[in-house]
Give the backbone structure.
Amino acid sequence: MAIDLKPEQQRVIDLAVQSGAYRNPEEVLDQAFEIIREQLLLEDWMIEQREAVATHIEKGFAQADRGELIDGDAWVLPRAVPGSNRGGPTGA
């Protein structure tokens, strides 16, 4: 298959090869296509998870409306500081 590249596309490929990160233009394109595949898979996953995430967000807003809030520092700090015994909601 032969494709025509725009000058800017060719320049990007040439620069990538000249940088030494790739041995040839095919490696540059292989990497580009792999990135595109990963993005498409992530997009598919995000679409699949959208409803679950929306449900969690709605649940959180409902809890906040009822006043069921947790101080951020009280929850994060015990988990971020090794050996800290400041109990959060899980007593960690």
